[in-house]
Amino acid sequence: MTHSHIPGSGFVLIDFYAEWCEPCKWVEPVIDEVIKEFRGKLILRKIDVDMQPAIARERLILSVPTLILLENGKEIWRMRGFDTAPVLIKTFKKFVN
């Protein structure tokens, strides 16, 4: 299965969300902080599950928000819901150097 719509090299954080999802709005500042921490090393890709249902099905997204970390197109970490920025940064430091 190829995911040509998602960048294939480096680290990509995918935020699966929906406009109607209140927790999805809460995760935005958390993700902003994480992306700032890994500036230049981590690309953010936001995918609205209602606008792009095929991608959500392909990635087996059952609820939003769901965060997926890819390395060179391969899923290496996944979380339904979200956590604080410091916890996510500590987690991602295990993968992104």
- SS-based class: alpha+beta
CATH topology assignment of one domain: Glutaredoxin
Count of DSSP strands: 4
Helix content: 25-40%
Beta fraction: 25-35%
* Rounded mean pLDDT score: 92
Give the name of the CATH architecture of one domain: 3-Layer(aba) Sandwich
Using the coordinates above, name the CATH class of one domain: Alpha Beta
**Succession of helices and strands:** EHEHEEH
Sheet with the most strands, sense and barrel status: 4 strands, mixed
Q: Note the total helix count.
A: 3
What does this structure look like?
By secondary structure, this protein is an alpha+beta fold. It has a domain at 9-27 and 43-82: Glutaredoxin (3-Layer(aba) Sandwich), CATH 3.40.30.10. It is built from 3 helices and 4 strands. It has helices at residues 22-37, 53-58, 85-93, and strands at 11-17, 42-48, 66-71, 74-80. Strands 2-1-3-4 form a 4-stranded mixed β-sheet. Helix 1 (22-37) crosses helix 3. 24% of the residues are buried.
